[in-house]
Automatic annotation (TrEMBL):
<dbReference type="Pfam" id="PF06439">
    <property type="entry name" value="3keto-disac_hyd"/>
</dbReference>
<feature type="signal peptide">
    <location>
        <begin position="1"/>
        <end position="19"/>
    </location>
</feature>
<protein>
    <submittedName>
        <fullName>DUF1080 domain-containing protein</fullName>
    </submittedName>
</protein>
<feature type="domain" description="3-keto-alpha-glucoside-1,2-lyase/3-keto-2-hydroxy-glucal hydratase">
    <location>
        <begin position="22"/>
        <end position="274"/>
    </location>
</feature>
<keyword id="KW-0732">Signal</keyword>
<dbReference type="InterPro" id="IPR010496">
    <property type="entry name" value="AL/BT2_dom"/>
</dbReference>
<dbReference type="GO" id="GO:0016787">
    <property type="term" value="F:hydrolase activity"/>
</dbReference>
Length: 296
């Protein structure tokens, strides 16, 4: 009897481990896991206000699942499915499902094309996580309220807040014109809506591969914590994800995942996600001093 019980618990333990290790592929030829949204074709001088035509009438966004410009397409490269984002129009694809407590993994590389207003700037896109509707909530009237894992040339892993989000990051305190810079040895500082420090932080170091090469990005989210990982290197440690609405701060720990179209051609592949029952043990170290007094 004891031996039978032992076998039962052994089988159940192995089943639980396999379930936790199960990855779900989020990319197929039909983009069936995703919806899309496009704002409007960008014009020079845009100041963040809702755009109007020559008569002062509001210009409607291109909108939800209405991509006649083929901004988001699936192609084949070396017999692999690849998501191509042209970047020609500001917008995003976003998961149909909401996610919490997960490990997201994908590969990304740059294309050659850039568009207005970033023709003379760095190529730019991003992973927006814990995204909650409405669409077009932030300054550019394109993306949902969310937290951003920045993907930019030389800046893979940076953080931006979107709309009224805020978060705490282990980082050096900014001074004068400087930006905060992530560092695992520092205390958490607060950034974003309602905080003294604006919602931007640089990654701890540049681990981006050479132009034209694939980069592996990983995003760990568990409870109110998240980690930005670039080619195997943890470049940012974040916690206390939240947003502000009507003066009230609310935890932001669940939502859809957006991939940005932001004036640069970019390619994604091997987009996978798995649920986490707990924060993986290898990442515990980064939160060992969470209870220490935060710098203001």
């Amino acid at each position: 009897m004891r031996y039978s019980l032992f076998l039962f618990f052994l089988v159940m333990t192995n089943f639980t481990i396999q379930a936790q290790d199960k990855w779900t592929k989020l990319l197929d030829k039909d983009l069936s896991y995703w919806d899309s949204y496009l704002s409007f074709k960008h014009q020079p001088g845009y100041d963040g206000k809702a755009p109007t035509d020559k008569d002062g009438n509001l210009i409607a966004p291109i909108g939800f699942n209405h991509d006649e410009y083929k901004v988001f397409t699936v192609i084949k490269e070396n017999n692999e499915l690849v998501l191509k984002i042209s970047g020609e129009i500001y917008g995003c694809i976003f998961t149909k499902e909401e996610y919490a407590n997960y490990h997201l993994k994908l590969k990304v590389k740059w294309g050659d094309k850039k568009w207005t207003p970033r023709t003379n700037l760095l190529k730019d896109t991003g992973i927006l996580y814990h995204s909650i509707e409405p669409l077009g909530a932030e300054y550019w009237r394109t993306w949902m309220l969310s937290q951003e894992f920045q993907i930019m040339q030389g800046h893979m892993g940076d953080y931006w807040n979107q709309a009224t989000s805020a978060i705490d990051i282990k980082a050096f305190i900014p001074e004068s014109m400087m930006n905060p810079v992530a560092d695992k040895g520092q205390a958490f500082i607060s950034l974003g809506q309602g905080e003294k420090i604006p919602g931007y932080c640089m990654r701890s170091a540049n681990y981006e591969n050479k132009e034209g090469e694939w980069n592996t990005l990983e995003l760990i989210c568990f409870d109110n914590k998240s980690l930005h990982i670039v080619n195997g290197h943890v470049v940012m440690i974040l916690e206390n994800s939240r947003y502000e609405q009507n003066g009230k701060k609310t935890p932001l720990i669940k939502g859809k995942i957006q991939l940005q179209s932001e004036a640069a051609e970019v390619f994604f592949k091997d987009i996978e996600i798995k649920h986490l029952e707990s924060l993986p043990a290898k990442y515990f170290q980064y939160y060992a001093q969470t209870e220490s007094k935060k710098q203001q």
